[in-house]
Amino acid sequence: MWIELPAAFNRGHAYRDRVTPRDGGQLLSAFYAARYPHSSAAVWRQRLAAGEICRNNQQLQADVALAAGDGLIWHRPPWQEAAVPVLPGPLFDDGDLLVFDKPSGLPVLPAGGFLEHTLLAQLQARWPDARPVHRLGRFTSGLLICARRSATRAWLSAQLRESTAQQQRLQKSSTTVTTLVSPCRKTYRALLQPPAPGSPLLALEPGELLSLTTPIGRCAHGSLGTIWAAAPAAPADPAALPALSVLRLLERRERAWSVEVTIATGRPHQIRIHTAAAGAPLLGDPLYGPGGGAQAGALPGDGSYHLHAHRLQLACPDGGLLELEAPLPEALRGAADG
Fold first, then answer.
1. What SS3 class is residue 253?
2. Which helix (H) or strand (E) holds 248?
3. DSSP code, position 40
4. Are 19 and 68 in contact (CB under 8 A)?
5. Which residues are bridge partners to 84 per DSSP?
6. Against a cut of 0.85, is the pTM above it?
């Protein structure tokens, strides 16, 4: 059981924006409603009346037409952030690189109503120079890489990008991909909803592999404007990003299927989208339904899906390999895991 940071009010935040030539002439309320679609123009007018918004360092209390180059600041008042787990001590620390077993429920970066109750804030309170190298979803637990030195972060980011590039080249040369060639490898455990009729997962026996290659792109969403979701393959959507996950069936359970997924590309919400596109969304995921589309009423931080970054393999500058493992949460353990 994780120690919890209790719900508390933060200190508020100043959101800064600059009006582009394209947006000049718009009413301020319309500008904000388009930029932050979680609130309507009427709500932004209420915030204006409350004195929360400044234009060019002048406090406004009524709607105005904007001009290109205007500087805007929304002084959001303090709000209560939900309780989150406390970040445990690192699994690995060599004086520069830090690797943590991130608890489910802890957001990595500010977003979705979280500003101070984040892994980043807890990390920097103890290691001021450290920054995360990559992200995990709020409800994804497991291995998260951080580094104190900017050069190390750049090196690791480049390695992750090269891993993606290698797998994209491999995908283009073969229609069926079950071998991952990069020395950078990230393996997850997950629980899936039992597959829907017609799902390719239904043909799998325990131990068998399935390549998931649904492209991922920006799609329309009622609350957020756009969101990452399954996209039609190019040329239907030329902006869609190629993505590759290799799924291995571990166990068919009565209420869920246990799987291992190794990802060769690092697309946003990749495993959530790929398993949903294959007809078996993550158990507890309200956002991505069968087919991989995003549900209009849900948000990326919603739910309590079962996804764990279990193993990590990275190439080291000296030519060796760094291999790490985060213990499995109880819900994801099978008979073979003890």
1. coil
2. strand 245-252
3. -
4. yes
5. 5
6. yes
Alpha helices in the chain (DSSP H): 28-35, 41-49, 119-126, 150-173, 270-277
Q: Is 54 exposed, middle or buried (0-12, 13-18, 19+ CB in 10 A)?
A: middle
- Alpha carbon distance 215, 242 (integer Å): 5
CA–CA gap between residue 101 and residue 104 (Å, rounded): 9
Q: What are 77's two structure tokens?
A: 């008042």
- Tell me which H or E stretch contains 250: strand 245-252
User: In degrees rounded to 5, what are phi and psi of residue 223?
Assistant: -95, -30
Token pair recorded at residue 98:
């830090």
Alpha carbon distance 65, 50 (integer Å): 18
pLDDT tens by residue, 180-203? 555 678 999 999 999 999 999 999
Strands 140-147 and 307-315: parallel
Question: What is 77-99 written as a DSSP string?
Answer: PP-EEPPEEPPPPPSEESSSEEE
Return d(Cα 67, Cα 137) in angstroms, integer.
38
Compute the distance between CA of residue 156 and CA of residue 37 in angstroms, rounded to an integer.
34
The band of 169, judged by pLDDT with boundaries at 50, 70 and 90, is low
Cβ atoms 189, 262 nearer than 8 A: no
CB-based contacts of 72, cutoff 8 Å, min separation 6:
16, 17, 18, 19, 28, 31, 53, 54, 55, 66
Amino acid 245 reads: S
Find, among 330, 208, 326, 332, the residue nearest to 258 by Cα: 332
Smallest Cα–Cα separation from 140: which of 320, 284, 34? 284
Give me the count of residues in the chain: 338
Q: Report the SS3 class of residue 225.
A: strand
256/252 Cα distance (integer angstroms)? 7
Q: Tell me the pLDDT tens digit for each residue of 78-126.
A: 999 999 999 999 999 999 999 999 999 999 999 888 999 999 999 999 9
